[in-house]
Amino acid sequence: MTQENIEDKPRVLVIKLGALGDFLQALGPFAAIRRHHPDAQITLLTTAPYVEMAERCGSFDRVWVDRRPKLLQIPAWLRLRKELRSAGFTRVYDLQTSDRSGFYFRLFFPGPYPEWSGIAKGCSHPHANPNRDFMHTVERQAEQLEMAGIGRVPAASVDWMTAEIAHLQPEGPYALLVPGGAPHRPEKRWPAERFADLANRLAERGIAPLLLGTQAEAETLKAIEAAAPQVINRMGETNLFEIASLARHARAAIGNDTGPMHLIALTGIPTLVLFSHASDPTLCAPRADQVTLFQVASLAALESSDVLAALSLGEAAESPAPPGAP
Asked: Which of 21, 173, 245, 296 is 20 to 30 Å apart from 124, CA to CA?
């Protein structure tokens, strides 16, 4: 395609900055926007952790990194304003719908303004539902796009997320354990000793427990490893594409309400996500066919036998049905 033909294409901007679970739940809207604008040059404005996914998912022609300037970084704001205004965008889909992304609409002052789908005051295609904050992300984004003229939004797919995992994959059956989560939200994390007990119970059933996490979760993962010697600790060894590929071959996955569980759920394996009072699964839970949501008021009171029973892997330990499970 010649440069002249590229310049003639309509230009569309999509804004989605993160976090991981939110980005993954936007994959369906990304595909719907691509389908609705087949001849457009579509740019995604996102943050650095999601660039590779954005480039490989097939929905975008260009990916821009938002460096998220702080309030008083005036030169950075002026550069961003210049980039947005000079790009010639005819329509913007703000799927972040935050105060920050809404302010980006103001950067087009004094105009001309592109068509804008979002919640910015004065935009051309507002998501005009006063109850939008009480909707699950999937339904909220689908309704936003419907109000902007885009109909069916497909389910998110990560079939394109593949990687070589021979160096990571254990022999025989295994289950993924994801004990991490936001460090400032300890109430969203099942205690390490319970994960360790679950790991031991899985090993007794011939299912290798494989730990996933980052260096930021080192203390938790090392505590589990110390109490459950048969775990395979892949701390810091996996990227998102390798996690997706590992998940496809796993018997099941168990983890806290954290981003990698959204990715694992989308691979289609049985996935058990643990919620406490600190999260509302009706607003943010992973969506996939084989996802089980297990919610209790306090994760500290949740026994490993209850979790194992909910998984239904072989001979489950005796336990009651998951309390409060949707």
From this structure: 21
- Asked if the structure places residue 325 within a domain, the reply is no
Question: Do 150 and 141 form a contact (C-beta atoms < 8 A)?
Answer: no
Question: Any bridge partners for residue 176, and if so which?
Answer: 210, 253
CA atoms within a 13 Å half-sphere pointing along the CA-CB vector of 72: 0
User: Do residue 286 and residue 193 come from a single domain?
Assistant: yes
pLDDT at residue 320 greater than cutoff 50:
no
What 3-state class would DSSP assign to 281? helix
Chain-centre distance of CA 298, in angstroms?
Answer: 24
CATH of the domain at 257: 3.40.50.2000
- CA distances in angstroms from 114 to 40, 118, 122, 125, listed in the order given: 14, 12, 11, 10
Residue found by looking up tokens 């943010």 in the block: 284
Average pLDDT over residues 48-71: 97
Give the chain's largest Cα–Cα span: 68
Per-residue pLDDT averaged across 69-76, rounded? 96
CA distance 288 to 91: 30
- 3-state DSSP assignment of residue 318: coil
